[in-house]
């Protein structure tokens, strides 16, 4: 046997041992590193003032009669669908939203606290396509959704199951939401997201949550979080307002999120885009407080720029990073939790562009102090695709960021004077007592990266990172075991889904 083969056998054995180790789920991050703030307090106030001018003088369209009636009753200026909101009214309503809240999971140990110094990571969301185990781009299926939910459940550093990780296009659109919610309930015990594409689908989500948690729990406690998007510039449409209303009425949380592509849906100016976004998101959160004062809401944003050559979205560039920092500062000014960032890329495959762009978004996300981060694993092609390999590669980076968020260990063990005294000048630390005690946990060890010699890498098949990551995803799914679910609850959920599917058409009318 050659030396390379012997080394390969040892490496494979160590990887197999790590892969078969029991999964230890990690608590959501409570950051122990400082915040980074891009602009000073005067800059924050300047953007705030511009946002107030937008709301008071230009206004926001609310394309829903019920929403217009609530604004009119609250004292806002309503002309047609245009609502102009006095700053005093807006700030009064924002102050009613909690700065921090708990989303309860069906396994109480997986519940997450959103706000403060906490950061919650969730997988990608909304992709109609997947890049599969053969690296082929195709439409997503219900089985793909199940797979991604299982992978999320098995990834300790993803604290949240997410929502539409990929679209199961083999299920009719009017019925799809039922299978998506059930997948999260059945295959994971982490907190999950509700459906928002129409108000009745939001209501169905609440009904399923009541079956799972009990009607006496849903309402007094927050068990769902969902995302609604503003139609930038400056429009809240009836579908999104309807879903927002359903969740707010039931005291369930929403990521109130303008989808900003600066240069197309907002000005071709970074500060100006932030001012518009701030007006849009604060108007949405204030509206939720008209529905139910105290309803938990998150200051959400999704920010990119567009290429002035093609109009295509660009991710990982400097301007979105600046927007992330400043919107987080604005959210703290209003005392609101903030959602931003993600492993965003426009790359079609898990290549160097995907890696650079993803981390160029995630690093400012962590340093800005984001409380909820969607799109943390799997995002490709500006969100059009969810990749199995990219999911595992992203999760590896997320795990590193979770370690980084703990800050520097300045304990006696962390300073390691014992080791320095033992080794002294000219020695080495490989065999000293401190190293033997800490070698398994001293440094982060990637499950994906290859740090071996060229010869060993070649002997193992010369695989690139995506190929290794896809192999890990397959092994994870082979090892998956579902969390226990009460059989009576499971039967009640399946009965509800069957009844609703019988009532719903197979196509959108």
| CATH superfamily caption of one domain | Trimethylamine methyltransferase-like
CATH architecture call of one domain? Alpha-Beta Barrel
The major beta sheet can be summarized as: 7 strands, mixed
Strand content: 5-15%
CATH class of one domain: Alpha Beta
Helix content: 40-55%
Q: Measured on Cα atoms, how large is the radius of gyration?
A: 24 Å
Distance between the termini: 67 Å
Stretches where pLDDT falls below 50 for ≥5 residues?
Answer: none
Global outline: globular
Helical stretch tally: 18
Give the averaged pLDDT, no decimals: 95
Find the structural class using helix and strand composition: alpha/beta
CATH fold-level assignment of one domain = TIM Barrel
Count the beta strands: 20
Description:
This protein is an alpha/beta fold. The protein has a domain of 311 residues: Trimethylamine methyltransferase-like (TIM Barrel). 46% of the residues lie in helices and 14% in strands. The strands form five sheets. Strands 10, 11, 13, 14, 15, 16 and 17 form a seven-stranded mixed β-sheet that branches. It has a four-stranded mixed β-sheet with strand order 3-4-2-12. Helix 9 links the parallel strand 13 and strand 14. The chain is globular and about 80 Å long.
């Amino acid at each position: 046997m050659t030396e390379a083969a012997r080394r390969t056998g040892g490496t494979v054995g160590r990887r197999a041992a790590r892969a078969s180790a029991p999964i230890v789920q990690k608590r959501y991050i409570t950051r122990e590193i400082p915040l980074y703030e891009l602009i000073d307090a005067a800059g924050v106030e300047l953007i705030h003032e511009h946002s107030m001018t937008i709301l008071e003088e230009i206004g926001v369209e609310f394309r829903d009669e019920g929403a217009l009636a609530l604004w009119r009753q609250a004292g806002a200026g309503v002309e047609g669908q245009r609502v102009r909101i006095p700053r005093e009214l807006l700030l009064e309503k924002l102050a009613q939203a909690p700065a921090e809240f708990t989303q309860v999971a069906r396994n109480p140990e997986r519940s997450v606290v959103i706000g403060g110094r906490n950061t919650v990571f969730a997988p990608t969301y909304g992709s109609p396509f997947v890049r599969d185990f053969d690296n082929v781009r195709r439409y997503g299926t219900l089985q793909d959704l199940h797979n991604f939910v299982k992978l999320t459940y098995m990834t300790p550093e993803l604290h949240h199951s997410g929502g539409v990780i990929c679209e199961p296009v083999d299920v009719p659109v009017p019925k799809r939401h039922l299978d998506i919610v059930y997948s999260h309930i059945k295959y994971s015990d982490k907190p999950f997201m509700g459906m928002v594409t129409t108000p009745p689908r939001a209501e169905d989500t609440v009904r399923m949550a009541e079956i799972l948690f009990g009607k006496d729990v849903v309402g007094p406690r927050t068990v769902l979080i969902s995302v609604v998007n503003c139609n930038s510039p400056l429009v809240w449409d009836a579908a999104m307002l309807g879903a927002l209303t359903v969740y707010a009425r039931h005291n369930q949380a929403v990521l109130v999120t303008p989808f900003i592509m600066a240069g197309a849906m907002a000005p071709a100016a970074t500060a100006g885009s932030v001012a518009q976004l701030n007006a849009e998101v604060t108007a949405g959160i204030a509206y939720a407080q008209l529905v139910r004062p105290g309803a938990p809401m998150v200051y959400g944003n999704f920010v990119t720029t567009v290429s002035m050559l093609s109009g295509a979205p660009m991710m990982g560039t400097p301007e979105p990073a600046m927007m992330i920092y400043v919107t987080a500062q604005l959210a703290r000014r209003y005392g609101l939790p903030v959602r931003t960032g993600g492993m965003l890329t426009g790359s079609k495959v898990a290549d160097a562009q995907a890696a650079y762009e993803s981390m160029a978004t995630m690093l400012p996300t962590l340093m800005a102090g984001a409380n909820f981060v969607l799109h943390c694993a799997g995002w490709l092609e500006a969100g059009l695709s969810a990749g199995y390999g990219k999911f595992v590669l992203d999760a590896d980076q997320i795990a590193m960021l979770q370690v980084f968020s703990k800050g520097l260990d300045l304990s006696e063990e962390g300073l390691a004077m014992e080791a320095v005294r033992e080794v002294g000048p000219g020695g080495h630390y490989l065999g000293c007592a401190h190293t033997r005690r800490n070698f398994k946990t001293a440094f982060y060890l990637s499950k994906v990266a290859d740090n071996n010699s060229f010869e060993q890498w070649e002997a193992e098949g010369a695989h690139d990172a995506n190929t290794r990551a896809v192999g890990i995803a397959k092994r994870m799914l082979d090892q998956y075991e579902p969390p226990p679910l009460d059989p009576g609850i499971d039967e009640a959920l399946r009965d509800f889904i069957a009844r609703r599917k019988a009532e719903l058409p197979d196509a959108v009318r």
